[in-house]
Amino acid sequence: MSKENYLEVCEAMGNEPSEDEIPLELDDLLPEVAQAYNMYSLLSCRIDSMAGIYLGKDFSGLETLFDMHDISKSDRLDLFKIMLILDSIDVEHANAKK
User: Fold this and answer.
1) For residue 68, is it within any domain?
2) For the chain, what is the domain count?
3) How far is the CA of 23 from the CAs of 41, 67, 82, 88, in angstroms?
4) Exposed (0-12), middle (13-18) or buried (19+): which is 65, by Cβ within 10 Å?
5) Most buried of 3, 4, 22, 40, CB within 10 angstroms?
């Protein structure tokens, strides 16, 4: 559900929106986090096809993405750290469904 849909539902039901329940959108994140998320989504996925386990993103092409998006050398480590956090959450969530 988007933030806009949530607010419309609250208005239609006469409820006051709760800050804790309003869905986050990309624009709500810090610019660095939004940039890391966008770049993370461009990476291909690694899957163990024999076991059916999601292994996370393939970071082998990350330097090329950094170069293509003109990410400065000083910002790359911070973005990579954020992407690692996203990856661990992604892997945990995907494999919890199994």
Assistant:
1) yes
2) 1
3) 19, 32, 20, 21
4) middle
5) 40
